[in-house]
């Protein structure tokens, strides 16, 4: 079934308010798909009743009271909770369009924000109603304003959890390779040591950070290899200061030692984790640290560097990532869904879901990661599942993505806060 603008117009009146462009509120709607994935399990023949911005009821469609509801038939479709992207950078665009260095150093901030508004819209239209945006990469606190514009309905976009600038140890991050005689703006905030770190964490929180992101290692070794940055004590301090305000700390880490320190310090998720070993993944399991593997990012950058996927054998980096990801699964580490989208195109977030399946997860497990697991790991108690009382953030796709993950790209309808967004 194909929805058209005229279908929505006849069902709900004009889709958008002319002045604000904000979708009109649709209240009391009974959605009747073929099946419902509730964030944990698949139910054939279920329906979902939405009242205002919340889910009112879910269960066998025949049992749902529809007397005062508009009924929307979603024949052939699966209805899922709005998907939660765990690792985005709405202020970045693909590196094969413009290198990361040039985005940070040469693009005007207004240009980056203009692009970000389009990225936000494309993300929402792809069925991702929440993003955890892990750093503006040189655009200071612009994620805070972007989030406000979305929350106020000025522009369409997903709900945002923002990290603002992110924290880096002095000298460790990028852009690098310039004359030591000039100070080059960095893609995140440099801070070190007791007082400076406390100030930086509190400043980021004060300016709107929902989560603190640290780079526990980065490519600054003698051979440009990744090496740990912050000491264990520095990481513990960051976590302690963030936690006392009720905020989690998450860590970029790709090395064994960077991951070990981040885990022991109490960081709640490890981003990337490429160099993980069975011992490190056992430690993650023990400390209930989740892994956000970002497999799509490595897949994308390898191709930007010339790898012809499907024609040439997989580069060493990809082969190693397959091995370490499998080790993480075998260790029982909780897997977040998050692709590092921005490295590749916003709206193409499903690429990570397809790759998680390609790398060894079952479609149902990958879909849990993108819904209930991410909600739990990110402390979002109001979404991530289709349950009475939760936000009516929903996505309808053609077919059954629990059987064939590719169906997740066939988005036919997106609902945010009970408002129907045009696909
Ligand atoms: Zn990232």
General description of the model:
With 423 residues, the protein is an alpha/beta fold. It has helices spanning 5-12, 100-106, 109-125, 142-151, 194-206, 232-244, 256-265, 278-287, 295-304, 316-330, 350-358, 363-377; strands at 29-37, 42-44, 46-51, 54-60, 70-81, 83-88, 128-133, 159-162, 167-168, 189-190, 212-215, 217-219, 226-228, 249-253, 269-272, 290-292, 394-398, 411-416, 419-421. It folds into two domains: 5-82 and 384-421, Urease, subunit C, domain 1 (Roll); 84-377, Metal-dependent hydrolases (TIM Barrel, Alpha-Beta Barrel), CATH 3.20.20.140. The chain has twelve helices and 19 strands. The longest helix is centred in the first third of the chain and has 17 residues, at 109-125. Bound molecules: zinc ion (ZN). Residues 87, 89, 134, 340 line the site of zinc ion. Zinc ion is lined by residues 87, 89, 134, 340. Residues 78-420 form the Amidohydrolase-related domain. This is Amidohydrolase family protein. Pfam families: Amidohydro_1.
């Amino acid at each position: 079934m194909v929805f058209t603008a005229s279908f929505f117009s006849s069902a709900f009146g004009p889709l958008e308010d002319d002045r604000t462009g904000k979708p009109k509120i649709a209240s009391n709607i009974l959605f009747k798909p073929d099946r419902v994935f509730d964030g944990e399990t698949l139910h054939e023949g279920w329906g979902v009743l939405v009242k205002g911005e919340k889910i009112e009821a879910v269960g066998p469609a025949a049992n749902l009271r529809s007397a005062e509801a508009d009924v929307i038939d979603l024949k052939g479709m699966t209805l899922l909770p709005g998907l939660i992207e765990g690792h985005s950078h709405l202020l970045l665009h693909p590196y094969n369009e413009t290198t990361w260095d040039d985005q940070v150093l040469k693009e005007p901030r207004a240009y980056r924000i203009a692009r970000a508004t389009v990225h936000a819209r494309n993300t929402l239209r792809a069925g991702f109603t929440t993003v955890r945006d892990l750093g503006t990469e040189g655009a200071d606190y612009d994620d805070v304003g972007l989030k406000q514009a979305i929350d106020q309905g000025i522009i369409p976009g997903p709900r945002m959890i923002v990290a603002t600038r992110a924290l880096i140890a002095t000298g460790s991050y990028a852009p690098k390779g310039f004359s030591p005689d000039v100070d080059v703006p960095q893609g995140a905030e440099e801070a070190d040591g007791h007082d400076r770190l406390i100030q930086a964490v509190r400043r980021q929180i004060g300016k709107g950070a929902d989560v603190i992101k640290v780079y526990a290692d980065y490519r600054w070794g003698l051979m440009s290899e990744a090496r740990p940055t912050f000491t264990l004590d520095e990481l513990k301090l960051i976590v302690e200061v963030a936690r006392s305000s009720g905020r989690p700390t998450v860590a970029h880490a790709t090395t064994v030692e960077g991951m070990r320190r981040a885990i022991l310090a109490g960081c709640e998720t490890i981003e990337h984790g490429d160099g993980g070993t069975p011992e490190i993944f056992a430690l993650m399991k023990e400390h209930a640290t989740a892994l956000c593997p970002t497999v799509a990012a490595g897949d994308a950058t390898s191709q930007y560097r010339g790898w012809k996927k499907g024609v040439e054998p997989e580069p060493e980096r990809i082969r190693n990532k397959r091995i370490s990801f499998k080790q993480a699964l075998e260790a029982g580490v909780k897997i977040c869904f998050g692709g590092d989208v921005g490295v590749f195109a916003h709206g193409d977030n499903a690429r990570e879901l397809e790759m998680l399946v390609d790398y060894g997860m079952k479609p149902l497990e990958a879909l849990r990661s993108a819904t209930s697991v991410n909600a739990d790991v990110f402390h979002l108690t109001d979404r991530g599942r289709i349950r009475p009382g939760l936000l009516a953030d929903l996505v309808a796709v053609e077919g059954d993505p629990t059987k064939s993950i590719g169906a997740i790209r066939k988005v036919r309808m997106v609902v945010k806060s009970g408002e129907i967004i045009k696909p």
